[in-house]
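The following record pairs a protein chain with its ligand, coenzyme A.
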Amino acid sequence: MTVLPTIRPAASRDASALRALALDNGLFAPEEMGDFDEMLAGFLDGSLDGHSWVVAVDDRDTVAGGAYVAPEPFSDRVWNLYFLAVRLGLQRDGVGGALVDFVETALRRRGEPVARVLIVETSSTGAYAQARAFYEKQGFDEEARIREFYGPGDDKVVYWKALSTPASGS
Ligand SMILES: CC(C)(COP(=O)(O)OP(=O)(O)OC[C@H]1O[C@@H](n2cnc3c(N)ncnc32)[C@H](O)[C@@H]1OP(=O)(O)O)[C@@H](O)C(=O)NCCC(=O)NCCS
């Protein structure tokens, strides 16, 4: 995909493509897909305020990537980019960047409650070096590491980005 994709809200018809993104990229194991389906269902039935699933599609409406962002509970207007993946074979072609730009623009434009900060969590292992390079390129700062969070030798790395200026503003 050399032309930048169209980004639109996800719909029920995208569920199988989104599940394939999660599985094919190794982000979810088959036995974890129940949790994935729950994250998606809460958005699709409209019951979760502030939650947003979006998909990047080509000119035939085929899904190239997807992202999910939602408010972080027990925080002051912090949103978490809980899911981001681009189809194998289409990576490193701007789709992930377009998805993150879209999500950030939508969060910056939303009304009350204002989104102040966007965080994203990933792994410290070599398998996620590409994701870490990507978030740094997208302007996120590495904010924290929780040692051994995902397993022995596998830390959680938290990236942070201000959405409103100043980040402490309302
Ligand atoms: C991480 C991911 C979403 C990025 O999406 P993408 O469409 O591949 O990324 P983009 O093409 O928009 O990349 C933008 C920048 O990120 C960085 N980047 C992306 N892939 C990279 C790689 N393999 N190595 C180094 N830098 C990389 C580069 O700086 C790149 O800019 P450049 O191509 O001009 O150098 C995608 O690669 C992916 O789905 N990976 C597997 C799933 C995953 O790890 N998701 C994140 C879980 S936390």
